Every structure is written in structure tokens, then in C-alpha cells.
Amino acid sequence: RAVYDGDIASVLISEQQINDKVTELAKQIDEDYGHLQGGDLVLVGVLKGAVMVMTDLARALPSPAQLEFMAVSSYGSSTSSSGVVRILKDLDRDIAGKHVLVVEDIIDSGLTLSWLLKNLAARGPASLEVCTLLRKPDAVQVEVPVRYVGFDIPNEFVVGYGLDFAERYRDLPYIGSLDPKVYTSGV
Ligand code: PRP
Ligand code: MN
Ligand code: MG
């Protein structure tokens, strides 16, 4: 995607590094859930950001998993969390009694996830855990238990592999830091 090249200051995590990490996460998840009786693991991907990690993780998992999606939004087009979470699309199925693993691309402030976990816990799943590919330092400010973390990253604005800025860059196969010139206002 040469058209984006000038917008990406540096590659933070390469396609290969993502691939290796997702394989490793899938192995850990399989160790914890692979032996479970009484139904498949239910992966809940948080649209749109988690779409890439969700599909790669599901394919890397040796054990069966069902794919469900929710869409919530906290960012809009800005670069920081507003704390306002909206459900844009709810789950299609009941998760009562199911083992649920929420799949996220990134935990930044943790506001989206803390809200989502409360919402999902109220539906009575057998278990509820979180897998995130990326986590930023600010995430520690909100108490959110995250069982599987791919990478702890610095507090930069990152895009690619599902992560957007104003809906762009999700289609990059790697994770890069966005050049501040892209989101700095004024000309
Ligand atoms: C982003 C990201 C996480 C959330 C993290 O989603 O994909 O879901 O923000 O931020 P937080 O920890 O500060 O709440 P966004 O709301 O931008 O929607 P999107 O996934 O459709 O891009
Ligand atoms: Mn998201
Ligand atoms: Mg976003």
C-alpha cells in the first residue's frame, strides 16, 4: 500500500512478528481451553479493530471455536478515548453458560473493555476472559483482567492490522506508528 507510505513513521510490529505472536497466543489458549467439555469456546471479536487478529487467531487455534462479533465504538475519528461506549452491533447469540474469550486488537485506556466485560458478564457466561494483541501503558489505570496479551507497546498512535485512524490503515498487514503530521490539525 505505497499510498500510505509517507503516513507511517515506522514499522512497530512486522507481519512476521504478528504471525509468530498469534501462533503463540493460540497455543496458550488451546492449552487452557482445548480440553473443555460441554461446547466450543466462543470467541467474541470486537469490531472493527479486532477483525484481523480474530480471523488469524481462529485459524491458528488447534481446538474448535465459534466466531461471534460485537461492534462498539469509543474513539470516533479522534486519537484519544472519549469514554463513551456505544453498541453498534450486539451478539447474535446467547452466551449464557458458554466459555467466552473476548478478542481485541488494542487496549488503550481500557474503557471500552471494562464496559464490555461488565455488559457480557451480566449475560451469565460459564467463563469470561480477554485476549488482546496490543496493550498500551495507560491500560493499567482501569482494572481490567486480561489473560492473554500479545505485545505491550509504547504510548504512540498505532495503525494497521485492523487498527484505524479515521477508518484508514486497517488494511495494512503490519502495525506502524502514524506520523503525527497525519493527525495534527492545522496546515
Ligand atoms: C479502538 C480499539 C479498541 C478500543 C481501545 O476501537 O479497537 O476497541 O478503541 O480503546 P480504549 O481501551 O481506550 O477503550 P474503536 O472504538 O476505535 O473502534 P474500531 O475498533 O471500530 O476502530
Ligand atoms: Mn475497537
Ligand atoms: Mg478505531
Largest sheet: 6 strands, mixed
Helix content: 10-25%
* Number of β-strand runs: 9
In N-to-C order, the SSE pattern is: EHEHEEEHEEEEH
Gyration radius, rounded: 16 Å
Low-confidence region ranges: none
What would you call the structural class?
Answer: alpha/beta
Spatial separation of the terminal alpha carbons: 25 Å
Overall 3D geometry? globular
Task: Please supply descriptive tags for the structure shown above.
alpha/beta, binds magnesium ion, binds manganese (II) ion, 6-stranded mixed beta sheet, Rossmann fold, binds 1-O-pyrophosphono-5-O-phosphono-alpha-D-ribofuranose, 187 residues, 9 strands
Structural write-up:
This protein is α/β, with parallel strands linked by helices and 187 residues long. The chain has a single domain, classed as Rossmann fold, CATH 3.40.50.2020. It is built from 4 helices and 9 strands. The protein has helices spanning 15-33, 51-60, 111-121, 180-183; strands spanning 8-13, 41-47, 65-73, 86-89, 99-107, 127-135, 148-152, 158-159, 175-178. It has a 6-stranded mixed β-sheet, sandwiched between helices. It has a 3-stranded antiparallel β-sheet with strand order 1-9-8. Helix 3 links the parallel strand 5 and strand 6. The radius of gyration is 16 Å and the shape is globular. It starts with 7 loop residues before the first strand and ends with a helix. The protein binds 1-O-pyrophosphono-5-O-phosphono-alpha-D-ribofuranose, manganese (II) ion and magnesium ion (MG). The site of manganese (II) ion (MN) has 2 residues, from loops. Manganese (II) ion is lined by residues 46, 49.
